[in-house]
Amino acid sequence: ATCDAFFYRGKTAAVLGNGEYALHEVQALLPLAGKVLLCTNGEPLTADFPEEVERCTEKLAAVEGEPNVNALRLENGETRPVEGLFVALGVAGSAALARKLGAPVENGRIVVDEKMQTGIPGLYAAGDCTGGMLQVCKSVYEGALAATEAIKMLRGKKQ
């Protein structure tokens, strides 16, 4: 959704998923889409989703529309009109790993300081997992900064 959210400006977009990956897609769509529908396909939520996201916990029976998606048909017979579907299943997000390591995570984003260090000494994070503009150039800069800071830390230098 990071690259395609623009195409759903003012439209209804659905995200199929229930975890960190789905949360990332939802957060990319929220500022642009007219409405975001989160479809969990019967699975429990494993991330904290914003309140303004409509939830659908029924299992999907079919994706309808030819050549473009125009609705989701649920197993209970209900049809939900949508203009796009983003599938966000099966990938463990970086925030889940950060949580396991004890690093601070807010709204699905790893919290870092100005040197890209998390709350755990020696643990750095950079790019999309830290939030803000989801762009390659930002990720490259942050990755280089984090690497430089990690090297300084490993060499015992303080700056």
What's the gist of this structure?
The protein is α/β, with parallel strands linked by helices and 159 residues long.
Describe the protein's architecture and organization.
This protein has 159 residues and is an alpha/beta fold. It has three helices and nine strands. The protein folds into two domains: 5-87, 3-Layer(bba) Sandwich (FAD/NAD(P)-binding domain); 94-155, FAD/NAD(P)-binding domain (3-Layer(bba) Sandwich). A hairpin with a 2-residue loop joins β8 (105-106) and β9 (109-110). The mean pLDDT is 90.
Layout of SSEs?
Blueprint (H helix, E strand, L loop, with lengths): L11 E5 L3 H10 L5 E5 L14 E3 L3 E5 L6 E4 L4 E3 L2 E4 L6 H8 L3 E2 L2 E2 L25 H20 L4
Parallel strand pairs: 1-2, 1-7, 2-3
Antiparallel strand pairs: 4-5, 5-6, 8-9
